[in-house]
Amino acid sequence: MIKDLNNMWKARTWMKTNVPFLYSWHAYVGYELDLFEAFRRPVRVEDVADAYDLEEELLTQWVEVGIALKHLKKDDKNRVKISKAWKLPGSKKDSPSSGDLLKEMMELHIPSLLHYPELMKEKKRQHFDNEKHGSTVAKTSTLLEMLAFRLINQNVKKHQTDSILDIGCGEGGYLLKLAKKHPDMNLTGIEINEEVADSAKKATKDFDRINIVHRDIHEYEPNQLFDYVMVNNLLHYINPDERMDFFSKIKNITEENGIITIISPLQKAKYGKQFSSAFNSFFMTFDNLYPIPSEEELRKIAEECGFEQQSPFPVIREGGWFFIKWIKK
């Protein structure tokens, strides 16, 4: 009897603990199908099902969940409207947004983590398809830009930077922001994903001083040295055994007294340990993604490559994301 009561108590505790997942699931479906836009004004469920060509019973149930979660509300004419829009992801046309973060979590992170039992038993890893998921990851990286750009711009001014190389530039967000603030600066972005590189070229086509290169950094031979090299949201793509070679390559294309800044989650850091450990768990389900570094690992690489590492600065404390700065000696 006591054992049964204990099991029931545990079950109820887990149900309460996992209620937040319902909010994420509901918000993800709404974002993916643009339903929050559909219900921005009071409208009948059947009209939305018809306009969006959706299965009406499933839509009705999604609406019922939304009402229970207070994402939606119903009026006295049985019409449905979003509630507290500021809490919900916007339309896809508003990308990048929290909706992109939900999309990455629901389509990439959670499915990968659910494979953990199978992967451990079969002693194998998945393979990360950069062509398939690169665009989604690039959009979520853009959200990080909004918080990190201030730190980057401060260093541009402090070190009187004339040239910047952004390794893994994504869709060119940092470069665009820099070009608008510093129109005389020479800016180069290198991106390994062809689709993402093409998006960056389109986004930056009106800026003559931005050059986007579709290439692997190890195959890149620039005809200049750079004052400032950015390594943002990238180190989990690089095998720890190869990180020394990676940064040695960067050292050779960095001016004397130039700087490198790194944006990455850090292992066992002061802030965000829960999320950084979850990031690591996700990365390690793939045979071509790798553990995030620790502050000490980066410090050792910096010293061996001839850089001085300053204390990491938290960009997103709850997520364990840090801004790390190296100065070439």
Write the layout of secondary structure elements.
Elements: H1 2-17, H2 19-32, H3 35-38, H4 45-52, H5 56-69, E1 72-74, E2 80-82, H6 98-114, H7 116-122, H8 130-158, E3 163-167, H9 173-181, E4 186-191, H10 194-203, E5 210-214, E6 226-232, H11 243-252, E7 254-265, H12 273-283, H13 295-305, E8 307-309, E9 313-316, E10 321-328
Parallel strand pairs: 3-4, 3-6, 4-5, 6-7
Antiparallel strand pairs: 1-2, 7-10, 8-10, 9-10
Helix pairs in contact: 2-5, 2-6, 4-5, 6-8, 8-9, 11-13
- In angstroms, what is the radius of gyration? 23 Å
Q: Uncertain runs with pLDDT below 50, 5 residues or more?
A: none
Task: Give the overall pLDDT as a whole number.
Answer: 91
* Biggest sheet features: 8 strands, mixed
**N- to C-terminal distance:** 69 Å
The count of strands amounts to 10
What is the strand content?
A: 15-25%
Q: What do you see in this structure?
A:
The chain is an alpha/beta fold. It is 49% helix and 17% strand. It is globular. Residues 164-258 form the Methyltransferase domain. GO terms for molecular function: methyltransferase activity. Keywords: Methyltransferase, Transferase.
Which keywords apply here?
329 residues; alpha/beta; eight-stranded mixed beta sheet; two-stranded antiparallel ribbon; 13 helices; 10 strands; Methyltransf_25; transferase; methyltransferase; methyltransferase activity; Class I SAM-dependent methyltransferase
